[in-house]
Amino acid sequence: MIKVGITGGIGSGKSTVAKVFEVLGIPVYYADDAGKRLMNEDAALIQKIKDEFGEAAYKNGQLDRKYLAGIVFNSPEKLTTLNAIVHPATIADAERWMHQQSTHYALKEAAIIFESGAQQQLDYVIGVYAPAPLRIQRAMHRDNITRDEVVQRMNKQMDESIKMRLCDFVIKNDEQELLIPQVQQLHKHLLTLQQ
Fold first, then answer.
1. Pick from 52, 82, 100: which residue ends a domain?
2. Residue 53 is part of which domain span?
3. Which of 112, 146, 157, 183 has the fewest CB atoms inside 10 Å of its own CB, making it the most exposed?
């Protein structure tokens, strides 16, 4: 089975593209959702988070996301530490999940495939591209946040032009080119590839 990543910056529409692949029968692993699940279910990961951020990181057996966010979003070092704890667990979980799939290829949707080193476990990476003004508008609408908050998040992510150059395939989600035909064409191409 071919393992394919799908990535893009905030507001690029990578989740929308992943949903189109799902309609075509391709299973998708959503890394952000998995990371949140693992931080509440994986005993070893929970212990590492408690060791680093204190027992207060969990309340009634569940991750206290507000408490943890208050620490990591004010400290780049603490965010790096949290990522160093969570990313390996998520990458390993994705790898186990991929081995359980029986389709010709499966997708892993993640914003930080290259930043986390996850591309090393993948055969190909699809980039979802949208121009910055459109990404800002989408994220503001979706997350109900200000333009400045979106720009702050964008500034913490890898430069979009660099990310797209690292990808094997790029889907344009710029509201100029039709999205579904691009996904269908790439789907057909991926079905012809051998592992």
1. 100
2. 32-100
3. 146
Domain identity same for 83 and 113:
no
* Residues across the chain: 195
Residue 187 pLDDT more than 80?
yes
User: Do 37 and 23 belong together in one domain?
Assistant: no
Q: What percent of the chain has pLDDT over 90?
A: 82
- 5 and 72, same domain (yes or no): no
Residues 93 and 110 occupy one common structural domain:
no
Q: Is the dihedral of CA 166, 170, 153, 93 positive or negative?
A: negative
In DSSP notation, 21-32 reads HHHTT--EEEHH
Residues 159 and 94 in one domain: no
DSSP class per residue in the chain: -EEEEEE--TTS-HHHHHHHHHHTT--EEEHHHHHHHHHHH-HHHHHHHHHHH-GGGEETTEE-HHHHHHHHTT-HHHHHHHHHHHHHHHHHHHHHHHHH--SSEEEEE-TTHHHHTGGGG-SEEEEEE--HHHHHHHHHHHHT--HHHHHHHHHHSPPHHHHHHH-SEEEE-SSSS-HHHHHHHHHHHHHH---
